[in-house]
Amino acid sequence: NNGCRQKFLYENVEYSFLYLEIANRIENISKFLDFKKINSFFEIGGGFGANVDFIISNFPNIKKIIYLDVVPNIYVGTSYLANKYGKHVIDYTLTRNKKIIEFSENDNLEIICIAPWQIENLDIKIDHFHNAASFVEMPKKVVKNYLNFIFKNKVKSISLVTYSAHDPNTTFNPYALNDFFEKKLDVHEFPTAVPELGKKDIYFTSKDYNYN
Q1: What are the tens digits of pLDDT across the range 107-161?
Q2: Rounded to an integer, what distance in angstroms lies between the CA atom of residue 90 and that of residue 52?
Q3: Which residues pair with 131 in a beta bridge?
Q4: Residue 209: its pLDDT value, please?
Q5: Which of 41, 100, 172, 209 is the most exposed place for a label (fewest CB within 10 A)?
Q6: Contacts of 100 (CB under 8 A, 6+ apart)
Q7: How does DSSP assign 11-49, residue by residue?
Q8: What share of the chain in percent tops pLDDT 70?
Q9: Which of 166, 169, 187 is nearest to 178 (CA)?
Q10: Average pLDDT of the segment spanning 40-57
């Protein structure tokens, strides 16, 4: 709960609408990808860190995480995750002077929180890359730049989720996301768990993305 306002009561326990929607999205993605076989996870636009928290809580095999967001969101997300995971969160103050950002060679949980300009310093192997909704809210050239660095780090599997409705004044057509991947991603549509958040979401997935 932690002061959440958008919540519901079920069997005398309060649950967040957002976490319910995250659970719904991960369940839908799991129809095409196996999170239990993933060790490293990279998310761009993680909001306040709820999705990363959900992933860690439900898939203990995922130990290495990169979480990127814009300022000041990255500060909020870092603080949220640090409140729960403490020393396992590596914040901007610990990476800002590093020319190479990489995971430690161990099985300890690491949540590396970085600002957008630090993506060019990443030198990691990524089992899975995820983005929910925020790509369609960015200029296409920004998305392309992000993906150049993601491809450089040879991500194995991909999941993108976005809302189906879009305002051309603020977002681009969500189906255009597949253009960045030469239309190699599989496309699926599923209803949202919380109707107030929209009628359906669009999913783009790839179990084993081909870079060639």
Answers
A1: 999 999 999 999 999 998 899 999 998 999 999 999 999 999 888 888 889 999 9
A2: 14
A3: 44, 160
A4: 73
A5: 100
A6: 121, 123
A7: TTEEEEHHHHHHHHHHHHHTTTS-GGG--EEEEE--TTS
A8: 88
A9: 187
A10: 92
Average pLDDT on 74-85 reads 94
CB under 8 A, 24+ apart: contacts of 188-191: 188/28, 188/31, 188/32, 189/164, 190/24, 190/28
pTM of the model: 0.89
Q: Are 142 and 89 within 8 A, CB to CB? A: no
Q: Is the pLDDT of residue 4 over 60?
A: no
Count the residues in the chain: 212
Measure the CA–CA gap between 180 and 183, rounded to whole angstroms.
7
Q: Which residue in the block uniquely carries the two structure tokens 């599923």? A: 190
Q: Report the alpha-carbon distance of residue 35 to residue 86 in Å, rounded.
A: 24
C-beta neighbour count of 29 within 10 angstroms:
22
Using alpha carbons, select from 195, 161, 123 the residue that is nearest to residue 43. Answer: 161
**Can you say whether residue 152 is alpha, beta or left, with left for phi > 0 and alpha for psi between -120 and 50 degrees?**
alpha
